Amino acid sequence: xxxxxxxxWIAHRGAGKLAPExxxxxxxxxxxxxxxxxxxxxxxxxxxxxxxxxxxxxxxTTGGHGVAGELPWSELSRIDAGGWHSRRYAxxxxxxxxxxxxxxxxxxxxxxxxxxxxxxxxxxxxxAVGRACRRLWAGDALAPLLSSFRPEALQGARDAAPELPRxxxxxxxxxxxxxxARALGCVAVVTHFDLMDxxxxxxxxxxxxxxxxxxxxxxxxxxxxxxxxxxxLITDAVDRYAPGAAGVIA
Length: 250
Description:
Order of helices and strands: EHEEHHEHEHEHEHEHE
Helix content: 25-40%
Shape: globular
Number of helices: 8
Number of domains: 1
Strand content: 15-25%
Largest sheet: 8 strands, parallel, barrel
CATH class: Alpha Beta
Number of strands: 9
CATH architecture: Alpha-Beta Barrel
CATH superfamily: Phosphatidylinositol (PI) phosphodiesterase
């Protein structure tokens, strides 16, 4: 297999649940806990600006309302994405992908960037994110890993930036997933931790694919997966796991 540049431990949505997810405040807190790799979600505004948000709608993690992808960036950028979490983070904005790229590149961090399209925009979102990442990480040896549950999004990313690494995300083992990962030129497969066992890890590693798992918060699961030589563990428990180790630290 090709050399793998990403750390074992990856902070889920910036800092798990300790800070408002998918915000720069969460990235900063994750970094304070020693993490050097982060997972986050990216989608497109109505005017084509990539920004961080998990859900299609704004209500759960912001003070906004409606489908996020139907609003222009000028409106999204003014929405409070921190007050829902706690008073401490009130006023924290939704970050653009440009802002996140500046932060991680300036600090030498790695990024697992999940392409999370608004339904119906899978291919277009993948293409736009691929183009943006090609521009934002130009000349950087540590490119983001572009992951998605949607093969159409990964195809779009491949069309726009074939040189960037891709990973297929799986919450179920749907028929044809293995062939799809290879057809898309993926370098990795990212599964829910319950789906990963010794046989599947061996299958993927034998095909030259790296193996990552989400969301690994339980110590017993962490130890089991480390024993399988998993290449990446995405966790909310950034205050309990020491990056690069399998042990619980608090």
